[in-house]
Amino acid sequence: MRHQPLLKYHLLCGVLDECDITLPAAGGMTVTSTTSEFVWPRPALADCITAMVIRDTRGCGLDQNQRFNYFPASPTPALIFMFAGDSHTVDDPDLMSRPWMAARRRSNFTFIGPQPSPIISWNPGEVYWVFIGFYPYALFAMTGLDLSSFVGFELPAEEALPQPILGVCRNFFDAVPRHGLERSFSTLEDELEIIWADARPAGTKSQRLIADWSRSVVAAAAATGSGRSTRQVQRRVKSWTGVAERDLLGFSQVQQLHLKVYEAERKGDVDWARLAAASGFADQPHMIKRVKQHTGFTPKQLYEYARCDEAFWFHRVYARMIERYLGGSGTRTDGV
Fold first, then answer.
1. Which domain holds residue 178?
2. How does pLDDT run across 96-147, given as a tens digit for each residue?
3. What is the strand order of the sheet 68-71 is part of?
4. By mean pLDDT, which of 29-33, 86-90, 322-326 is the weakest?
5. Which of 7, 49, 105, 140 is the most exposed place for a label (fewest CB within 10 A)?
């Protein structure tokens, strides 16, 4: 499988045609023994935490290509807790064939700001780690962080987060090896629930779709403070979320496309032109351009890779999240 042309798109913003990418043979990269799952937060934190994502490859014996991880751009800040193994961020196309030479993540307890571009990482061996995502406006309310200062960055959590949220998240990181993930996450939720109850803006509701919570953020920015000009509202939105209002719209359109695609797949009727219009894009080329900006791939390529390439496990987990959202299930945990 040729990873290098894909990374050149990520890093250099080049224009790729489908002929530039060699897709893996169907079924050739699938690994069924890894653990990749998500956990919804409890209802009291549903407007604070997006989800917990778990990745465990211990005992799986993945080869070098299967240990790559392809992550899409995202407007949500997150914490990564690495309990076993290592990770390298591959940000140079020349390092795709020797990813162990890429920069190693500085800390096993890492804060990641909103990411405007896709990310590729690589694990030199087995890993066990947890990702906890936060709604941007919730993290701002709890910490006062200007998230626009962290866009595109990942750094040790101690260098980014203030108390008390740093302390409770550090306690979770230390507790998992001793008490297990389920018990430790429940304790973390207990402590975050107290912090969120004090910081939670009046009228905040659980809104999982980007289109919903971004509209709420814009409305709150327009109603806050003495300055309510368009420029001042835009500044507040970017400070609270790290992302400009127009970019939130782009994230929302891509998420809507995910929803529409999985609805269409269940009906056996995937028409990309119709899906582009239904998701708010101007036309199909606009949809392809936006999805490439967020993932590095055309929509068709992305779904083909996600079916058969282990390195795209995150996209499969996200698909399960979308399916669960569409199905309205109250089950807390699911995985692939």
1. 4-335
2. 999 999 999 999 999 999 999 999 999 999 999 999 999 999 999 999 999 9
3. 68-71, 119-122, 88-89, 103-104
4. 29-33
5. 105
C-alpha distances in angstroms, 243 versus 58, 73, 98, 141, 144? 36, 12, 33, 16, 16
Domain tally, the chain: 1
- Output the pLDDT for position 29: 41
Dist CA 14 CA 272 (whole Å): 23
In DSSP terms, 128 is beta-bridged to 56, 84
Provide the pLDDT for residue 222: 81
Q: Which residues of 78-100 are buried (b: 16+ CB within 10 A; e: fewer)?
A: bbbbbeebbbbbbeebebbeebe
Q: Which two tokens stand for residue 277?
A: 């219009």
- Chain centre to alpha carbon of residue 235: 24
Which pLDDT tens digit goes with each residue over 30-56?
444 799 998 999 999 999 999 999 999
What is the pLDDT, as a whole number, of residue 290? Answer: 94
pLDDT > 50? residue 27: no
Q: How far is C-alpha 12 from the chain's CA centre? A: 21
Distances (CA, A) of 150 to 142, 154, 160, 249: 16, 8, 9, 20
